[in-house]
Each structure stands twice: as C-alpha cells, then as structure tokens.
C-alpha cells in the first residue's frame, strides 16, 4: 500500500510539473509578441528573422546527423511554408498591436479543420462550423465592431494563421510515416527561413543594414531563440509524455490571454471592452475546437504545432 501511495504521489508530481512547464511555455509564447515588436524597433523584419532563425539553425545543427538527416526532405518544403508564415506574422506584429497579434494567430486552430476539408475532403463537424462563426464574431469585435478597422497588420496575422493551418496539414502528410525528430525538423525549417530572409534582404536596394548594436535587440532575439524555441520544444516534448492532449490544449490555449496582458503591462497597449470581448470569443472558439473537435492540441509556438506532428517554430 505504501508503495502504491508513493507511486501515486510521484505520478501526481509529474503531472503538476508537466502542467507548470506548459503554463510557462504559454506565458513565454504570449510574451513573444511584445518581445518581437520591441526587437523590430531596432532592425528590419528580414534582418531580424535572418538573425533569429540563423542562430536557431546553428544551435540545432548537431541534431542533423545519422538517421535524423531524413528530416531534410520534408523540412525543405515545410520550411518554405514557414518562411511565408513568419514574413506575414512578423510584419503583422510590426503593423498591429501585440494584443491583436496574439489573439488573431490563435485562429490557426479553427482554420485547420477547414484546410483539411479542402485538402482531404474530410468535412468538419457542425461544432467546428459553430466555432468558426464564433471566431468570426470575435475578429469583428477585436478589430472595431461597428467601426471595424481591419488594418494591414491584422490582415497579415490572419494570413499567417491560415498558413499555419496549411503547415499543420502538410506536416502531417509529409512526416506521417517518417517519424522525424522534432528538433531535426525544426533545424531544417529554421535554416530555410534564415536563408530565405537573407536572400530577400540582400536582394533589396541597399542590401541588409549593419548589425544592430542595441543590447535590447540582442536580448530580445536571444530570448526568442532560447526560451520561445529551445525551451518550449523541450518542455512540450517532456509534457506530452506525462499529461493528456486535452490538458495540453487547455493550458496552451491561454497563450493569447497572456499575450494581451503582457502587451498591456510592457508596451502600454490597452484594449477596449469591445476588443476584450472579441479576443475572449476567439479564445473560446479555439478552446472549443481543441476540446470537443477533431483537431490535435496546438503545440506550435517556437516549436509549436499540433501534438500529432513534429514540432515547428512559432513566434
């Protein structure tokens, strides 16, 4: 009996540890919008992404050896999709508020079953149609309600959310039978994003500006690489072995709320009651899709993606 009690105590401890780590990741991902917005005060989008994902690629390069090299084949096209995501998302963060960005990007969860419907002819359940309608009302309220003011940044965040849904479906298709390690796949994708941004940046008139000297920029970039990518991947992979997909979904679904709160405390952004109502409706639609729909838990942030797929990267 004593041994059984010790086992139960240990299992409960592991569950609480997993929950705490996932909640920490949700907070980190929520903060990433404000951190990225601050980094963009010092360096343009293409340069920032080239540095950020170049560092990520270098740190993860040791993962690409032996059988893990099989991550290259699916990683190249998936990296191309991820390049489009981060171009939309990072310019979107620069052109809208960090609060709006955090709420709008979470719509990738609601979009995913409809992308699957288009690609695989698998009709979503009626509940998911309801969640989609709820999210549309949320977007309407978040962007102004009757005085709707969907700006370019908001539009880019919606495009990024749609591309994330496409990435989820392509990842499932391209890695279904390969069992590609998450870190190896993230390494390849990061290399594609860094290379793509560097080529685009050098192709512009005047090329890339000199590297920024601001300690704030480098602190923000290293935070995103170290915590929003590497720690998040580790915590996600550890937690998924110790807790249920439902708990993962509910904990990670709190990310937009943390994003809005941190943006308010750090950047001084303020949402009106109408905008808060819209953001919370988006969260409810996302959580409803995850909890009762047929979508895997989104574990896509820097390294975030559905639990059914190998990890990708996120803001």
TrEMBL record:
Keywords: Cell membrane, Membrane, Transmembrane, Transmembrane helix. It is found in: Cell membrane. It is a multi-pass membrane protein. The chain crosses the membrane at residues 15-35, 41-64, 76-95, 101-120, 127-150, 156-175, 182-204, 216-236, 248-267. InterPro entries: Diverse_Substrate_Transporter, EamA_dom, EmrE-like. Residues 18-143, 152-289 form the EamA domain. It comes from the Bacteria. Its main location: membrane. It holds the Pfam family EamA. One of its GO terms (cellular component) is plasma membrane. This is Threonine/homoserine efflux transporter RhtA. It comes from Stutzerimonas xanthomarina DSM 18231.
